[in-house]
What does this fold into?
Amino acid sequence: MFPRKPTRQIRVGNEKTGVVLIGGGLAGTEPAPVSVQTMTAGYTYEIDRCVAEINRLAAAGADIVRVAVPERKDTAALREILDQTSVPIVADVHFHFKRALEAVEAGVHKIRLNPGNIQDRDQVNAVIDACKDAQIPIRVGVNEGSIIERKDKEKRKQELGAYFEKNLIGGRHAHLLGLIIAKLEEYMDIFRERDFADVSISCKSMDAAFTIAAYQEVSKRFDEPLHLGVTHAGPRETGAIRSIAALSGLLTQGIGDTVRISYASDPVYEVEDGLELMYSLGLRERTGIDLIACPTCGRIQVDLFTLVQNVRTKLASDITIPMKVAVMGCVVNGPGEAEGADVAVFAGDKKGIIYVQGERVANVPEAEILDRLLAECTEFQRRVLAGEATLGEKVVEIVPPDPIGELGSGFEKIAKGDVEKSTSLTINKS
It folds into this structure.
């Protein structure tokens, strides 16, 4: 749907974990699907907890999981962790080059590195050479929070002074973008000198608009695959908006090969929302239900919001095919949505009519809607898996219910003078 910007392609993982391809389109490669990443929230050296968290994230759909290795005890735990997990693992390295060497020796599948945080060029070269020998890639991160000088106080003062300068419109962002590009060019020269090409790039910021501008500029200048994200995005409630504002804009421009949505929350949500973003943009084939529902309005005549959450929760693990399920609370949007859904319900006055691929199959009181809808979804999945039905295949025109009959208000007939007042809702037993 959205043509991808051609990039070099890198490989993450092995036969045990499966190989995740990132990027593509150059050197005879095909663009790989945009992958979804996340990072563990616990301590890596707590092996059992770390393994449990990684496996939980993989079960949620994470393609790649990153772990922090700030200390020797973290890298010492990696070998045992890798033996108990089946998703590619990235070691997050910042200030200690030995942590990267130890992670490579343990068999990690990728290194995340900021060369600017390691002052000794020989140490950076040692990490690059180790990854080259092990045939694993490196992500170069030049996030907003890590490129401003930290140790040299005078240099930091100058950089921050330029960063906050407001003499020109956009002066702050212009300076920061220039700094990112300069740092990236400096870092990439290091890799080219070592003849190392298995590199991906990230340039995250907490500012969604700046993130878009930064990745646009980086995409013009570099052929390496790009890892997208908004750093310091905040809690899920606000971080989702901030992240999607930046990432969807870039992905629809064909920019981005792998993403992480970052929250100050359970990383499972990062995976779920990252996948939903891919599904919504048509960049990944959906697995499980595609649930749509009415927004808030005064026409709803059942406890729709509880019903929607119950449907979502109960079908999350039971339905594995990309089935479209519509849960509608009134007759205004219900018929149209039911017509396009594999399984649908639309309701009124504490009652509901259920359709399967446009054919009416049940007419039940509100208390029975959930159980009957779940049963119809499960049965429809069985039929699809058995080859007896096809997703989205059958299109049946659904005629909205009689305004003064099932689920209707009667206002149209009243307006025409056909009846004096609305009649009570009646539900035929099916």
Q: What stands out?
A: DSSP finds 14 helices and 15 strands in the chain. The domain at 290-416 is CATH 3.30.413.10 (Sulfite Reductase Hemoprotein; domain 1).
